[in-house]
Amino acid sequence: MSSKLRVGILGATGMVGQRFISLLENHPWFEVVTVAASPRSAGKTYEEAVGGRWKMDTPMPEAVKKLVVMNVNEVEKVASTVDFVFSAVDMSKEEIKAIEEEYAKTETPVVSNNSAHRWTPDVPMVVPEINPEHFEVIESQKKRLGTTRGFIAVKPNCSIQSYAPVLTAWKEFEPYEVVATTYQAISGAGKTFKDWPEMVENIIPYIGGEEEKSEQEPLRIWGKVENGQIVKATEPVITCQCIRVPVLNGHTAAVFVKFRKNPTKEQLIEKLVNFKGFPQEAELPSAPKQFIQYLEEDNRPQVKLDVNFENGMGISVGRLREDTVYDWKFVGLSHNTVRGAAGGAVLCAETLKAKGYIQAK
Predict the structure, then answer these.
(1) Active site includes 335?
(2) pTM for this predicted structure
(3) Is 134 designated active site?
(4) CA–CA distances in Å: residue 108 to residues 53, 105, 142, 152, 289
(5) Which of 158, 240, 242, 348 is catalytic?
(6) Is the pLDDT of residue 221 over 80?
(7) Sequence ranges of the domains in the chain
(8) What average pLDDT does range 10-33 have in this prediction?
(9) Catalytic residue among 134, 240, 242, 251
């Protein structure tokens, strides 16, 4: 009998669900034992349910092919088979909120990739290198839900990963105003070029809801736990434009920053390359050894060369230079479905396990 924690994936047939499955293959702590999806997939094997829609670069893991897909709405039945679940369900925001709370109330921790609970006051939204202390709010959430081990934790939007860690590394220089434009890959919409041919050689200057998330979610990550809920920070003020570009994986951000203090370029780079957090200190299985790399070449970071830095869990930064209107500007790059989605959630789950929040039932 494996000593690994038994994991279920809700929404296992979609793109992020598939990414969870590929990332968890041979994971030292977690084993996928249950896959759940919509009623139309239920009863088929995972291989049959996904069919020709497997979107990962690596083959479908043998261990999941013959798992029979369960109906995600049969909450008690699914929950009885696992120690915790990753949630990547494709439903309306209200439906997601309800079903994730239902799972939590079965005493099953839920680590969610969805946005539905990102602003629920007692649900932690965490980048483990930045704000793992926000997991403390789980105790208040359990009181509200009436649970002893069930809770919901979420990871933030994929678009902020290419600049929020950078601004965190520079906190002591007091960044107070930020302009960011993100150039976002089509996999962020759960698509490939085969599904979305109109994106070939095209740019769409609009992604629904994305700009608000990109401006507000970093402030919640930088907030504080007060009286059993998370109170967001007020600075730096961020304004953002989000643009869909013809790239499969990798969100790039062009960012301008004003600081209250006056750092040198050397100081800024030193803070980036030495920035680490709990995942690095605890040597968690999915943690990048180097969280942020700085690239000196003028033409980096590039999606083709840099998106898979640290297996897609690291952030690449380049083109740091003084600006004529703002103080400094830079370009950041992160892998949107690894660090930005499933991988970020796996790292959250590893942090929760390391801190004792997730245990075997």
Answers:
(1) no
(2) 0.97
(3) no
(4) 29, 7, 11, 9, 30
(5) 158
(6) yes
(7) 5-157+342-354, 159-335
(8) 96
(9) 251
